[in-house]
Each structure stands twice: as C-alpha cells, then as structure tokens.
Amino acid sequence: MKPSEILLTRLRDELGLPIGNGNFIQRTYAGANQKSIGAWTWCLTGPANDGYRGRLGSQYPVTELVHYARLTAFHDRIDDIHILPSDDLKLR
C-alpha cells in the first residue's frame, strides 16, 4: 500500500473519521515560508458531498505521519481538521 492509502485507512480506523472511499490525499505544494507559519503539506480531496474537501490536512508530510504509532485530530476555530502525531513514538 502507498503511504497515502495507509494514512487514509488509519484516519478511518483509528480516529473514526468518516472518510469516503472516493477521497484521496492531494499535495499542496506549500513553500518553505508558508510551511513555517503552519501551511498544510497535504489536504483531503474527493467528492464534494463528503464534507471534508480541503478541510482536513496537516503540516506533517504523509510519509512522516504513517511512521507515528498514534495520531490525533483537532478542529480549529474555522472547523478545519488538523492531523498531528500524538506523541514522539514512531513505528519504524
């Protein structure tokens, strides 16, 4: 499985996020300046009716997140969902 597929499965199974099968992770191509102030490196996209289009993502790259043992999600004040590692424990 690709890292993006692994992460989507973990978001569904571990965090209980109702992410449909038609969704996929899209890289945002944020530059270093944008990333330094919190820009996401990826966001979820797919069918417009799923409620998450462009509203779920992370500063952490997908390839890094899949190595953490535990993930967490939080809603910010504009109701975007941020995905973060919940600790420093990595699987590999």
For the residues shown, what is the average pLDDT?
84
Order of helices and strands: HEHEEHEE
> Helical region count?
3
Class computed from helices, strands and strand pairing: alpha+beta
Task: Quote the beta fraction.
Answer: 15-25%
Question: Which assembly state applies to the chains in this document?
Answer: single chain
Distance between the termini: 16 Å
Widest sheet, order of strands: 1-2-3-5-4
Number of domains: 1
What percent of the residues sit in helical stretches (DSSP H or I)?
Answer: 10-25%
The number of distinct β-strands equals: 5
Radius of gyration: 13 Å
Which shape, going by the Cα principal axes? globular
Largest sheet: 5 strands, mixed
Give a description of the structure.
The structure is a single chain. With 92 residues, the protein is of the alpha+beta class. It is built from 3 helices and 5 strands, in the order αβαββαββ. It has one domain. Strand 4 and strand 5 form a beta hairpin. The radius of gyration is 13 Å and the shape is globular. The mean pLDDT is 84.
